[in-house]
């Protein structure tokens, strides 16, 4: 089965990593968006308190978690209609299995963004369907094989934010064809130069979520990547179908993590504190990259600076590695991104200061 999947691209970065790690002041790894700051104390306390969990948890989530998700979606996404909700074991497993869980398969087409998180394509290949990369739906024409359209705003890796009018067009286009729109909104709460809009917002869906699902994650918002805590909100019928299949497949969020999610969703103070840390790191890195001659595109939201030196991405990866800095080559994210690198904001203040010093030396 793994032969049907793309090569795991991170192995290709090993030589640059070895060069960067040889820097006398050590490696600054800005290649992966993995949180480095502590898990907020109130979330750890909720996890610990729920650790006596001998019985099987509910795949649908505890009533407390379902309420917390629904309230958060209404508050943060501006969704006034009746939503289906469902916890997931982080969002990566959902991204990888969603086409399969929805019965998408051979002969079907799934649309993914031109430049995107690689797991969308993995999920389509696992299902045996065909991938089409497109940002503009007009280019697709009236293809009746399209069963699913992925959108991702704010985008990983580009940090691009899609306006409400664009989201509405995608939803209208998909509804006319009976396709499902899935909007990955893992970076929704990390808007800098623009305020990201959820596909669930009333200005997009008007409270009717037919054929629409949004995907959320607490990995970045609440530093919970290690807990594996994500959730869905959207079309109640689609979510009920996903729940039915996931129950059979044992895709269950552990009970202590469900309790931790309730605590995380009920608190915005830690979110604001974490945002402030990222905002400061973003500003320092942005200025240093510009001084070093980089151009930064999009990057209006999310945890990455989408940067270019106007050359092949691997040349830029090497240039940065010589300075002890590791970045992700744009080529990992799509064939049209070969002249950019993705620079993550997820490093400690100390490591970000080291990168800034090296970039501006
Ligand atoms: C766009 C996007 N979606 C989904 C994920 C998966 O996140 P998680 O599985 O931690 O929720 C990531 C992780 O970086 C991502 O960038």
Automatic annotation (TrEMBL):
This is Aminotransferase. The keyword Mitochondrion does not apply. Keywords: Aminotransferase, Transferase. NCBIfam families: DapC_actino. It holds the Pfam family Aminotran_1_2. Belongs to the class-I pyridoxal-phosphate-dependent aminotransferase family. PROSITE patterns: AA_TRANSFER_CLASS_1. It comes from Actinoplanes friuliensis DSM 7358. The lineage of its organism: Bacteria, Bacillati, Actinomycetota, Actinomycetes, Micromonosporales.
